[in-house]
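ok, trying the design again with the full structure, not the truncated one.
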């Protein structure tokens, strides 16, 4: 090797950069968008690919503002821009000045055709959806055992469903043969009754990375599962066909764990809230009772009792005296009326008249009282009733 021609990495990269950037000041390239990643800075990073190659691309915020559509994975895009080399990573990309939709990408078109076919078979019907159990005893997770998504799910389940058993069914989540293994894990979970609810998914990735979850084998396994399935593929903006066949779609694996964990946390919170409310209510009532009982200590209880009872005793005594006085007056009045009635009765009694010397004469022939001389005829026997005894006489003559 000629040491005179030795170059540093930076020098070599600078030569490559100058050759590429000077040689391709303006290019127009068409390809399928993949791994679209809007950055917090407002720039859009993505890739353009075809069947044989892929190139990174970026469109800066000032150019992106004038774009009339939102680039998404799978879209066929036509980009015009310049080639740029990023020296720290030794990578090159196209910096897009203009971007336009060139039509539907091959992957999206394929997925759309497959979606229509599976929907026509009824695999996405709402009537097939099963509710998730409120308190699952076991939760199955079909995902990569080494992926960050599984760790997120386990962390959430430890918090949300600490009493539930978690069964990890390991499966590759991208690459050749991944779909068949994912489908087989779902079938095994059903065959052996390994879980009350299944989480099927992975973390985020490009459209190609998520393709196994749109394969027919996976979609049909999800639709046929007797165990309720929560689909958790990628991030919130990602999607896969198994989302439509699942009983519930979660925006992220962590959210799927929240859903699959059941209502344990909510039930605990409800019970805890009810207990705290009950204790607060009891404490309030006890405090009110203490405040009410505080004036009634042993020292002044008798005094307070007398203060309450004495006015009532006075009122009772007054009422008693009034009643006795009223009854006395009533009795005196009745006694006076009785005496007057007795006097009047005695004055009108026949015995009182007889005591003054009068007698009652009865004509024995007629049996009537003789009130005048005409009431008797000569020869009639008369019975004379005196105050004490009876005299019998015979009428000799009458003078009237």
């Amino acid at each position: 090797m000629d040491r005179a021609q030795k170059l540093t990495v930076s020098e070599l990269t600078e030569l490559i950069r100058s050759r590429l950037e000077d040689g391709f000041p303006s290019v127009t390239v068409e390809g399928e968008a993949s791994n679209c990643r809007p950055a917090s800075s407002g720039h859009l990073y993505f890739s353009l690919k075809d069947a044989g190659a892929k190139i990174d691309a970026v469109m800066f915020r000032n150019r992106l503002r004038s774009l009339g559509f939102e680039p998404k994975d799978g879209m066929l895009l036509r980009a015009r821009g310049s080639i740029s080399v990023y020296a720290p990573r030794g990578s090159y990309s196209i910096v897009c000045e203009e971007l336009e939709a060139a039509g539907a990408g091959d992957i999206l078109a394929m997925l759309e055709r497959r979606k229509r076919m599976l929907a026509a078979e009824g695999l996405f019907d709402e009537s097939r959806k099963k509710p998730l159990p409120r308190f699952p005893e076991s939760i199955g997770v079909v995902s990569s055992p080494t992926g960050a998504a599984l760790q997120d799910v386990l962390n959430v389940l430890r918090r949300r469903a600490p009493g539930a058993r978690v069964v990890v069914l390991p499966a590759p989540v991208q690459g050749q043969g991944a779909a068949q293994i994912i489908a087989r894990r779902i079938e095994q979970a059903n065959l052996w009754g390994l879980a009350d609810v299944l989480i099927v998914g992975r973390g985020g990735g490009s459209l190609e990375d998520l393709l196994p979850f749109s394969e027919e084998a996976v979609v049909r396994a999800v639709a046929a599962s007797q165990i309720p399935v929560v689909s958790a593929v990628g991030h919130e903006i990602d999607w896969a066909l198994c989302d439509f066949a699942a009983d519930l779609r979660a925006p992220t694996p962590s959210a799927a764990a929240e859903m699959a964990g059941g209502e344990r946390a909510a039930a605990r919170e409800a019970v805890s809230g009810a207990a705290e409310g009950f204790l607060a209510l009891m404490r309030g009532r006890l405090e009110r009772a203490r405040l009410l009982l505080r004036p009634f200590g042993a020292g002044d209880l008798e005094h307070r009792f007398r203060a309450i009872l004495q006015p009532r005793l006075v009122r009772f005594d007054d009422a008693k005296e009034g009643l006795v006085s009223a009854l006395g007056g009533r009795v005196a009045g009745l006694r006076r009326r009785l005496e007057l009635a007795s006097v009047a009765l005695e004055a009108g009694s026949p015995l009182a008249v007889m005591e003054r010397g009068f007698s009652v004469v009865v004509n024995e022939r007629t049996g009537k009282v003789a009130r005048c001389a005409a009431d008797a005829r000569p020869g009639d026997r008369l019975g004379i009733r005196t105050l004490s005894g009876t005299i019998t006489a015979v009428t000799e003559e009458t003078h009237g």
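Keeping the full-length input from now on. The mean pLDDT is 85.
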